[in-house]
Amino acid sequence: MTTRFDNALGVIFGLAAALIVLTLSSARMHATVEQNSALELAYAEATSAASAYARGGPSVVTAAHETAASTSRLRIATLPDRQLVGAWPGTEGSRPLTVAEKGLFDRAERMAAQGRSRLDATAPDRSVRVSAMLPAGSPPGIAEVELQTPAGGNARLWTFLLITSALAASFIASRMPAIAGTQASRQSALFSIGATAVGGILAGFASLSRLGHWQTEKAADVETGLEGLASAYNVTLERTNIISEPLAGARFDVWLAVFLAAAIAAFFAFGIGRRIWETLKTHRTAYAYAAPAVIGALVLVFFPFLYGVAISFTDTTLVNQTDPFVERWTGISNYLSILGDTDLFRRGEAGLSINYQSFWWTLFVTILWTVTNVTLGVSIGLGLALLLNTPGLAGRGIYRVLLILPWAVPNYITALVWKGMFHPQFGVINQGVQLFGFQPVSWFDSFGSAFLTGLAANVWLSFPFMMVVSLGALQSVSKDMYEAARLEGASAWRRFVDITLPSVQPALVPAVILSVVWTFNMFNVIYLVSNGEPAGANEILITEAYKIGFEQYRYGYSAAYSVVIFAILLAYGVFQVRATRATEQV
Amino acid sequence: MAGEKEGRHIWIHAILILACIAALYPVLWVAALALSGRQEPALSDLPEDPGALDRLRAMAPVPDQWSLSNFTGLFAELPMGQWIFNSVIISVATTIVGVIMACTAAYAFSRFSFPGRRTGMMMFLVSQMYPATLMMIPLYIIIEEWLGLGDHFLGLVLVYSVTAIPFCVWMLKGYFDTIPAEIEESALMDGASPGRIFVSIVLPLARPALVVTALFSFMTAWNEFILALIFLDEEASYTAPVGLRFLVSDYAAQYGYFAAGSIIVAIPVCALFFALQKFLVSGLTAGGVKG
Asked: Are B102 and B213 in contact (CB under 8 A)?
């Protein structure tokens, strides 16, 4: 009785899911060929990129920036010193960018980062794809625009067949136990799964025929005028040829739909759905309370994590991110190229040099960074806590408040302040260096000194945490123990090793674990103080992953890098928990 | 004996005073720069051939001339007011959404036993180890492309409040665990509904922990920098951290404005921090979570 119900439910839900997937996938293709405003937008963007390329190669890019209220366009040269060379229209000459122009600049740089003569733009409703490209060897100012629009197909028949088959399958599946007797529950489950899969395949064919093909039109001789704006793109559309090829990714959508349908059917047919539903009903109060946070975390924490892991197996970049997933799939090649970059030394013109871009160098810097920071942080913090814990010390409260202050300051401000103090020309630290008769140091020009800048800033902001934790633990140590030890004639060192350390250890161990994880991922300090200078030598893993992702726009590679970071941290966490448990048992 | 003690204390005071100077100097430096009316990261001009005294004076965190022009300029020439306003809106909204979601979930995890309880708590803990860069690209795609909230404050509010949930849940669950269940049981005997017990008995009892969680959420949102940098393109929708960073980025070097802005932005969080630092330490070490 219940099985019958489950099977029918499974078939219906499975086919519904398949239909939704296929409708979604065809909706993005289904569009009219007529030019609409979205098309013009995509068109303008593509042609402006092509024209910028035509005018000065990939280093000069025109960015258009439009809001509801205003339209501003800029021509920006991405020179190494990041100066704006000419604003458009009007202003000439070089000056730093204003806040308003920075957004434009980023966008322009994003386009330039691709270093391409081709830009694909997809209209927001995905109805139209435009590719602008500059044929090799053609004179500047002429670009070729390729307009691709989907052609519709006839799908009514297939949809009708699909719905009929779904109804038939669910009916038969629901009658199955009655027909085959008591032993049939397993068979009926298998049958309903099979029926759903067949339904999914039918739906897939329906969708394939409906998706149609891309229709390609070419517009040659696009005048990309240098002066005017709205009228600059005298685009003449010439229908040259119509290419008929099945849409990329359509087949993938079909198999996805079939798989989903079968999975859902199996989910119900084997009674998992029922069991979950009953659990939910029994504990409904608890689940209702937990639901908002859990759903939120599923959508914005756990799903992004899985999605990130998924794209780490692809070569997704800014350019191809709208392509179907299967086309971007590259397996573990990202991981191979990250972990396989073992050539730490390079033979250049100036002799042997270290390959700062290698993962292993960055890992080495990260470990060095974490170990030095945590060691210094713990020593300074514990030392100050011991001093503050001196019995009868006057002004302890004031000292404590002043020494905690670095922790209270937001860490991005701390980082930027230290960057200013290490300024090679104006910075106070070089004033101090010169005060003692030394030459000023170019802090960010060599690995060692640049490492020190980050270290100074990070130790400054992290020691108060250790100090507060140790102080809390020290205050709970009984004074009598010290008194007794003193009477026994134990030296100060012995008292420290035998009484102080064991009593602060329980509080200090979790603090050190936390601080290792924090420092390992301390993005702000590295990014804002030395920014990995010189030449990326000071990058730690997390900033390197950021730069790969958001400055080189290699999303897939960056995700793989991040997964490696996560694996290292997880391994550390597991190891640490084991080690702590082991010591507790002793 | 007494003399020996005095002598030791002098050394201790000397070291502690040195440490305090090191801890205070960067803060004083920013304050002096903010009040100097200058834009370079230097507090005074050096003569042609500076002597040791000139250099000492250049290092002392006292401006050459006192001026409020950095503060006035910040609001007159730059949209600092707008940036602070954005930060306030985002942080307050994050606090409200985050605390509501976290306190109900923490209550469920603390009071009820249900399938998935242990797994849920463990998942929350492990999620704190996810590298931010791994989350950025998917979050960017979800918020910017699927939801279209890229430049909207709602996008950041959603992300901030949800990413703070694991920490807040752990902290609040720890506190709920300390409230004796007998109180609720007797209320249940008297015929109160579970929802009523939660709202009018448990929440008031947990007020201290709720306050700390709220302040923590507020500070997280107020200080967050990387995600805001990625999501916000329009200058008008910048939060204060992104705006401040912009002032001393590769595009511009306006250290004076930056210093003045930092003072304004940091004072409220510093005050909050000192108000709740005692709870933060216990929460951090008890929950065992990242920042």
From this structure: yes
d(CA A394, CA A391): 9
CA angle in degrees (0–180, nearest 5) for A125-A129-A130: 130
Q: What is the pLDDT of residues A414-427, one digit of tens each?
A: 998 898 888 887 78
Closest residue in chain B to residue A467, using alpha carbons only: B281
Please classify residue A259 by burial: count the beta carbons closer than 10 Å to its beta carbon, then call 0-12 exposed, 13-18 middle and 19+ buried.
Answer: middle
Number of residues in chain B: 291
Q: How far is CA A305 from CA A310, A311, A518, in A?
A: 9, 10, 19
How does DSSP classify residue A439?
P
- Cross-chain CB nearest to A507 (options B248, B255, B285): B285
CA distances from A253 to A128, A208, A212, A244 (A): 19, 9, 14, 19
User: CA A247, CA A213: separation in Å to the nearest integer?
Assistant: 6
Among A97, A293, A565, beta carbon nearest to B105: A293
Which residues of chain A make contact with B269, given a CB cutoff of 8 A?
A: 408, 410
The partner residue sitting opposite B23, judged by closest CB among A393, A403, A562, is A403
Tell me whether residues A566 and B233 touch, CB distance under 8 A. Answer: no
Is 50 exceeded by the pLDDT of residue A86?
Answer: no
Structure-block tokens of residue A291: 């639901």
Q: State the smallest CA–CA distance between residue A546 and chain B in angstroms.
A: 6
The residue with tokens 């914005």 is A300
Sheet holding A214-224, edge to edge: A118-122, A129-133, A142-150, A214-224, A233-234
Asked whether the bond before A534 is cis by omega within 30 degrees of 0, the reply is yes
Q: Is the dihedral of CA A28, A29, A30, A32 positive or negative?
A: positive
| A447 pLDDT above the threshold of 70 | yes
Full DSSP string of A357-378: TSHHHHHHHHHHHHHHHHHHHH
Q: At what angle do helices A447-475 and B2-34 cross, to 10 degrees?
A: 130
One-letter identity of residue A138 = S
- The helix/strand/coil state of A354 is strand
Are the Cβ atoms of B235 and A573 closer than 8 angstroms?
Answer: no
**Contact: B290, A521; criterion CB under 8 Å:** yes
Reported as a single tens digit per residue, the pLDDT across B128-180 is: 778 888 888 888 888 877 787 777 888 899 899 888 888 888 888 888 888 88
Q: Which has more confidence, A128 or B229?
A: B229
Is the CB of A385 inside 8 Å of chain B's CB atoms? no
**Distance (Å, rounded) from C-alpha B142 to C-alpha B122?**
25
Q: Please give the Cα distance from B211 to B217 (Å, whole number).
A: 10
ipTM: 0.86
Helices and strands (H, E) in chain A, number of each type = 22, 11
Report the DSSP pairing between strands A118-122 and A129-133. Answer: antiparallel
CA distances to A79, A355, A421, A503, B271 from A447, rounded to whole Å, are: 25, 13, 18, 39, 37
From chain B, the residues in CB contact with A407 under 8 A are 273, 277
CA max distance for chain B: 86
